[in-house]
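Protocol step 4 of 5: obtain the predicted structure for the target chain.
Materials: sequence only (see below). No template structures provided, no constraints applied. The aim of this step is simply to have a reference model before the mutagenesis design in step 5. Sequence pasted as it appears in the construct record:
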Amino acid sequence: MKIMITGAAGFIGSQLAYRLWKDNHDLILIDNFSYGKWDNLEFPDHSFKKEIIKMDIRDKEGIASLLKAGDVDYIYNIAGIAPLPDCQSDPVEAISVNTMGLVNILENARLYGVKKVIQASTNAMYENEEEFPTVENNFKVPTLIYPNTKYCAERFAESYAKTYGMNITCLRFANVYGPHIDCLRKQPPFVAYMIKELYYNRVPIFHSNGEQRRDYIYVDDLIDLAIKVQDSEGFDCVNVSSNINYSVNEMYEIAQKIMGKNIKAEYASDKHYWEKYPDLYKGKFTIKDAILEHEINKYSLCDNSYAKEKYGWVPKVSMEEGLKRVIEAECKLLESIDNGEVK
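Step 4 output (structure tokens):
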């Protein structure tokens, strides 16, 4: 089969590409490298550096040129702007990439007969829920820019499915972790930040009291489900979650044990959560303290029974095993950076 992956130089996209390559599929890989990294394209037995195409998913003619032969079976649209503060700081760009970028993919998929589009969505859409675990077909509209870009993207996906009879599945990722998770980002994901601080023997600064709980999914488990949904028909939304959540403090304890560290974390005020993004605090109307407090302290737990029942999918990697794998990979990367081997 021929499969296109957007965002293929990112954390999830690169891992998906490697898995599909090992399964002997013909791949078209694209990334505009606004967040993707060349290092993600290197695997022990294969490099995608010469295969990847530098392209933005909003490029109408570019995407059309890759699909016009009519032989692409599936598209995984993994490209997007994921960091919440990045989206909040530049909402126009976030909406353009995360929402309109998908529309460009869908329109070209419609024109050139792609069998199925699988869209990377998010459990951040459940940010305003009060009943747990959250299910796919009953939730409140989100507040922040990032989950709204994905919520709107899903609405357009549903429109295309119903209007044109296209097959589209939206995978609502829980907090994804695994090797290649971005520890160099301006505000890294929690797992990456925690490992980086421990590696350098620095005191990590967490917000609130560390008791806030989130659900996580290991990248290999996510990819297992992403492959299983290929042949489903119509429009569908599926939670991708382990259905288990952990507190910041619990995960930090596990990571310290694995790394042999004993560093007491410090805790900062919620008001400073996005202090690296000063634009959010400028202007006549600034971001509300209550919004930051809610984002930091929100509880997340997604029901994964639908994925289990419909697709026979069961997550296999425990948090302890998953963190062990991530720590090994991230420490190796940080050591390479320190030695000047990776820039």
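Step 4 remarks: The two ends are 35 Å apart (CA to CA). The first helix runs from residue 11 to 22.
Proceed to step 5.
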